[in-house]
Amino acid sequence: MTELQKRVIDFVRTIPQGKVVSYGQVAVTLGIPRGARQVGWILRGLEGAVEHPWWRVINNEGRITIKGNKHHGPLEQRSRLVAEGIEVTDGFKIAIEKYRYRPKSSISPQLLPM
DNA sequence: GGTTTGACCCTAA
DNA sequence: ATTAGGGCCAAAC
């Protein structure tokens, strides 16, 4: 378990129920402004090894983009989100701006306009 | 060690 | 709405 992995999990665990964040947002919060892909890579690598609300992380368009691994898939992510009261429109689309979790002042205005 | 791929993001057309 | 291209970084060949 690397430091970065721990920090990702740490932050993901602070996301309140019924809220979501984007991969890029996690990256910025962790201090790697252009490391969205890296975050995705790390989350994929965990594969449920550590318990954390991984389903509250989606892409910046509000879409579920995970391909799925042995433990979790897009269908499960969707049902988990719905179970928390988040509305999922169309197959896998979410009104992210409505549910986005915004921690104090850790987000770059460039990434999150308005 | 170069190339490809990916649970990403942005801009432009 | 869709496509194309660039940037990003780590893993896997």
CATH homologous superfamily placement: Winged helix-like DNA-binding domain superfamily/Winged helix DNA-binding domain
Distance between the termini: 36 Å
How many structural domains in the coordinates? 1
Residue fraction in strands: 5-15%
How would a crystallographer describe the biggest sheet? 2 strands, parallel
Spatial order of strands in the largest sheet: 1-2
- The CATH topology is Arc Repressor Mutant, subunit A
CATH class: Mainly Alpha
Helix content: 25-40%
Q: Which secondary-structure class do the elements indicate?
A: mainly alpha
Q: What does the average pLDDT come to?
A: 85
| CATH architecture annotation | Orthogonal Bundle
Query: What pattern of helices and strands is seen along the backbone?
Result: HEHHEHEEH
Tally of DSSP β-strands? 4
Radius of gyration: 13 Å
Residue windows where pLDDT falls under 50 for at least 5 positions:
107-114
Principal-axis shape: globular
Q: How many H/I helices?
A: 5
